[in-house]
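[Meeting: bench + compute handoff]

Bench side (C.D.) handed over the final construct sequence. Compute side (W.E.) agreed to return the predicted structure before the next meeting so the bench team could plan truncations. Sequence as handed over:
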Amino acid sequence: MDDSIRTGAVGVGNWKTRAEFKDLKVTAPDGKVLYASDFSHGTNSWRFFSGDWQVNGDVLRQDSLNENIRATIGDSSWTDYTYTLKARKLEGSEGFLVMFRAGEEGNWRGWNLGGWGNTRHAIQMDDIITEAPGSIETDRWYDIRVEVKGNRFKCYLDGKLVHDTDFKPLQSLYTSAAHDQKTGDIIVKVVNTASDPLATDIELRGAKNLTGSAKAIVLTSASPLDENTLEEPTKVSPKAEALSFTGAEIHHTFPGNSVTVLRIGTKTN
């Protein structure tokens, strides 16, 4: 398994839904409590990436009906744990996002309850890895429990096991290379289908007369579902940047959800 998926914090969120969350707790396999919600001092240590969040007593409430709303808590280096909480839908078209193994910059993985128009529950790790029919009722508290151990995930809703799966991640990085006979440039195309950035070493074995400079043209966005609109016509658009390297190796971090074209110059240009 990719190391970035072996670890991560926890969180909650919504998609076109208002909801409340309480009694959040994260417990290590040895019984040590890694986190237990206490909102008496507000939302210290929480990271909010979107939404309209507020505290009401011992409840964390989210009042926006926008898409892709997320908040996380905890250490991104956490590995195995049991994550429990209670959640209640107040209004909206879907259910809850219960995040675990959540990465940096809000990249999330976890359990989508009542997704796709409140028709399915699914575990998502960049992509859907397992799903089951299901919906979330309004104004009802649900008991949620997620057990993560290695690449095995077990998800319970009101004490009923909904998912029990071993995650076998698919390849997320795809590459191809070509030589521009006219300019002498070496062209490397790299696609990162994962949501997290991926640090990569590219070895240009056998390449001669390298100049040590390259141009990267990058097309990426925070979500693979993003698209251009009349209001945001350049939300997803290519951007260029200059790179430098030594020898015949390029070390570069490719953003999540990205297509990158590297044009590497040679002295024969």
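W.E. noted at the follow-up: Residues 3-166 form a domain with the Jelly Rolls fold (CATH 2.60.120.560). C.D. will use this when planning the next construct.
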